[in-house]
């Protein structure tokens, strides 16, 4: 019966993420998890937490096995699960330990997002809450605040099952008050706007060899752009192409460079495009602003490279697990933030894996009026990866109070407002163009102003209060 509860809880938890995407399921799953662990020994708690994590993370991250097999997926699932194990130390929950539980959960996500190799915070529970009624919390307390509140909601469910209605109402009332305050603090839409045309050109073939015909990927985006401009009723102020849309170096390939020059100069519209740039014996994943008059005017080099995707850590060890390691040429990371400027509008480029880096996103958002998330999902086929990434982008839009253009080579692409709502969305694995007038926010969200201090408060204050009360009662 205990095993059944753990399995059910893990499956419910995973249901908060695409393809199911029901925001309330993770909290119910955690409530199952809490109920089981309350009466178990430390060893059994560790085993049950490991089982819960393996199932939940395994389901959520199953897309990582697309085209590369089960071994990388199982290794990543196991790594993510190990971060949950310290939760066993605070059970059984009682009195002030209940308040420590969401703090420790946020602490585990803190480490998950930073270690190893820069972290992989994809499964942070806050990223599953883009449709929740309390999502505005992110604008004040970031993703960590969303995770904290979701775990509090799990405790509400737990107390309800134990018929502790007063405690449930107290926690629910506190959470509701916090949500109302965060909603009241949301800024109004800015008076300035920009017309953006985003191009999802498609790829000739999904999979690891999507760029085997890089010229065709480029021409797909070029042709889709001309078609959209011909059929469009409003001339855009900016065109945005995704990551890897130009998967050859436009600085060394004369044909590609000339085609881009002709597009922007004839149409008199700047374009932000994703390209691969040679850098000695390595490559760089870049976002380039191509101006109609000056050509390439600013270049952002992707800061947070994808481990085992764009570079191989521990290469000699990793090749024992996958023969595909030898096919990966290491990319070289950028070290600086670069903001694209178009007629007074500051556009912050975010390339794929950058999206889950809290510090990098905060630095970029503070200097931007709008964020352009350029990504390539072709390597994950038709899996839920793209939808999960879009959910993360929606939470980031709320957190930083910036509208987002999320554009992919093969989908899903979308325009997202600063409240996390999707204004337009493409289908997966299609060629498409979407255009919209986007509101600009040039202020800074409370979450960005507070920075890591909110996370520190969520982690340490409830736990500190627990220790203080415990010592006072001991005396």
UniProtKB/TrEMBL annotation:
<feature type="transmembrane region" description="Helical">
    <location>
        <begin position="70"/>
        <end position="91"/>
    </location>
</feature>
<keyword id="KW-0808">Transferase</keyword>
<keyword id="KW-1003">Cell membrane</keyword>
<dbReference type="GO" id="GO:0016410">
    <property type="term" value="F:N-acyltransferase activity"/>
</dbReference>
<keyword id="KW-1133">Transmembrane helix</keyword>
<keyword id="KW-0812">Transmembrane</keyword>
<dbReference type="InterPro" id="IPR036526">
    <property type="entry name" value="C-N_Hydrolase_sf"/>
</dbReference>
<feature type="transmembrane region" description="Helical">
    <location>
        <begin position="450"/>
        <end position="469"/>
    </location>
</feature>
<protein>
    <submittedName>
        <fullName>Unannotated protein</fullName>
    </submittedName>
</protein>
<feature type="transmembrane region" description="Helical">
    <location>
        <begin position="20"/>
        <end position="37"/>
    </location>
</feature>
<dbReference type="GO" id="GO:0042158">
    <property type="term" value="P:lipoprotein biosynthetic process"/>
</dbReference>
<feature type="transmembrane region" description="Helical">
    <location>
        <begin position="98"/>
        <end position="117"/>
    </location>
</feature>
<keyword id="KW-0012">Acyltransferase</keyword>
<dbReference type="InterPro" id="IPR003010">
    <property type="entry name" value="C-N_Hydrolase"/>
</dbReference>
<dbReference type="GO" id="GO:0005886">
    <property type="term" value="C:plasma membrane"/>
</dbReference>
<feature type="domain" description="CN hydrolase">
    <location>
        <begin position="194"/>
        <end position="440"/>
    </location>
</feature>
<dbReference type="Pfam" id="PF20154">
    <property type="entry name" value="LNT_N"/>
</dbReference>
<feature type="transmembrane region" description="Helical">
    <location>
        <begin position="46"/>
        <end position="64"/>
    </location>
</feature>
<dbReference type="Pfam" id="PF00795">
    <property type="entry name" value="CN_hydrolase"/>
</dbReference>
<keyword id="KW-0472">Membrane</keyword>
<dbReference type="InterPro" id="IPR045378">
    <property type="entry name" value="LNT_N"/>
</dbReference>
<feature type="transmembrane region" description="Helical">
    <location>
        <begin position="169"/>
        <end position="188"/>
    </location>
</feature>
<feature type="transmembrane region" description="Helical">
    <location>
        <begin position="137"/>
        <end position="157"/>
    </location>
</feature>
<dbReference type="InterPro" id="IPR004563">
    <property type="entry name" value="Apolipo_AcylTrfase"/>
</dbReference>
């Amino acid at each position: 019966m205990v095993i059944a509860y753990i399995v059910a809880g893990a499956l419910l938890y995973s249901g908060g993420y695409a393809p199911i995407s029901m925001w309330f399921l993770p909290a119910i799953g955690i409530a199952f998890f809490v109920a089981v662990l309350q009466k178990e020994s430390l060893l059994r708690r560790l085993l049950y937490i490991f089982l819960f994590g393996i199932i939940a993370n395994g389901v959520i991250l199953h897309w990582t096995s697309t085209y590369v097999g089960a071994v990388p997926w199982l290794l990543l699932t196991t790594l993510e699960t190990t971060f949950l194990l310290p939760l066993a130390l605070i059970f059984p929950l009682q009195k002030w330990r209940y308040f420590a539980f969401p703090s420790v959960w946020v602490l585990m996500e803190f480490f998950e997002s930073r270690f190893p190799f820069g972290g992989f915070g994809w499964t942070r529970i806050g990223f599953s809450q883009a449709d929740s009624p309390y999502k505005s919390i992110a604008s004040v307390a970031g993703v960590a605040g969303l995770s904290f509140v979701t775990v509090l909601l799990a405790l509400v469910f737990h107390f309800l099952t134990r018929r502790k209605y007063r405690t449930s109402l107290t926690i629910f009332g506190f959470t509701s008050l916090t949500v109302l305050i965060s909603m009241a603090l949301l800024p109004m839409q800015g008076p300035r706007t920009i017309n953006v045309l985003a191009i999802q050109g498609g790829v000739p073939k999904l999979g690891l060899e999507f760029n085997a015909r890089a010229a065709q990927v480029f021409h797909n985006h070029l042709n889709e752009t001309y078609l959209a401009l011909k059929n469009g009723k409003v001339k855009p102020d900016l065109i945005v192409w995704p990551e890897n849309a130009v998967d050859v170096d436009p600085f060394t390939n004369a044909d590609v460079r000339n085609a881009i020059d002709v597009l922007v100069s004839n149409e008199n519209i700047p374009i932000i495009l994703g390209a691969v740039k040679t850098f000695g014996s390595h490559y760089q994943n870049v976002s380039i602003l191509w101006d109609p008059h000056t050509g390439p005017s600013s270049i952002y080099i992707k800061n947070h490279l994808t481990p085992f995707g764009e570079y191989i850590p521990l290469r000699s060890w990793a090749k024992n697990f996958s023969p595909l390691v030898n096919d990966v040429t290491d990319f070289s990371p950028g070290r600086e933030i670069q903001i694209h400027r178009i007629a007074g509008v500051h556009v912050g480029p975010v390339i794929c894996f950058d999206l889950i880096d809290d510090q990098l996103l905060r630095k970029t958002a503070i200097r931007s009026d709008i964020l352009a998330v350029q990504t390539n999902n072709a390597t994950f086929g038709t899996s839920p990866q793209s939808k999960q990434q879009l959910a993360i982008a929606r939470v980031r839009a709320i957190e930083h109070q910036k509208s987002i253009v999320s554009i992919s080579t093969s989908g899903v692409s979308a325009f997202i407002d600063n409240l996390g709502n999707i204004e337009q969305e493409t289908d997966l694995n299609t060629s498409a163009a979407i255009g919209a007038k986007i509101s600009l926010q040039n202020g800074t969200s409370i979450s960005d102003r507070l920075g890591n201090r909110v996370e520190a408060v969520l982690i340490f204050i409830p736990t500190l209060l627990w220790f203080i009360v415990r010592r006072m009662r001991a005396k």
